[in-house]
Amino acid sequence: MAREKKFSTDDIYLQTHNLLIKEGYEKFSFSLLAKSLKVSRAAIYKYYTNKDELISDYLVGQMKQMMEEFNQINWSLDYSDRFDQLFELIFKYREAHLISNALPHDKMIISTEKQKQKETVSGEVHGQFFNYIQQFIQTGKTNGHIKKDIPDSLIVGIIFHSINIPDRSNLSSQERAYFIKMIIKNGVFDISK
């Protein structure tokens, strides 16, 4: 009997991410995952009972990782640079956010325990990010960096939902992030004319 190839949960999460981006939730299966990891399906079942539990754990892991990075950033004192840091972090986790948005959350089969864990982590992440962005916007308005008449909720929505803009360009991910960030910061009009 041949020995099973060794792999880690990080390997599983990486391939899960890649397959969900490439194939989508409906086509994602343990068969595809096993093939991409070059292992048997049985090897994956040692870790997870179904794809929904795996996807849930993957997303919780992404949220935790993003918050670790958020908490470890050496935030710039320059307001514009701090916005760049925030936007780059949000954009770095763009694909995980897109995966989460594409899932049929109401139809997914996950344990009550995992559901509570996901909701707890999601609440903490969104709460911490929302609070930081609210403070960031208020500081920007107070110091004249952001127009005071633009509603905070609209600014937050534009920042967070900019990652959902469909990619119809031939730009790299970094180029797209740069131009979207510049549009948010400066608009599209050339005010020098």
UniProtKB/TrEMBL annotation:
This is DNA-binding transcriptional regulator, AcrR family. The keyword Secreted does not apply. One of its GO terms (biological process) is regulation of DNA-templated transcription. InterPro entries: Homeodomain-like_sf, HTH-type_TetR-like_transc_reg, HTH_TetR. Residues 29-48 bind DNA. Residues 6-66 form the HTH tetR-type domain. One of its GO terms (molecular function) is DNA binding. PANTHER family: HTH-TYPE TRANSCRIPTIONAL REPRESSOR SCO4008, TRANSCRIPTIONAL REPRESSOR. Gene3D superfamilies: Tetracycline Repressor, domain 2 (1.10.357.10). It comes from Carnobacterium viridans. Keywords: DNA-binding. PROSITE patterns: HTH_TETR_2 (PS50977).
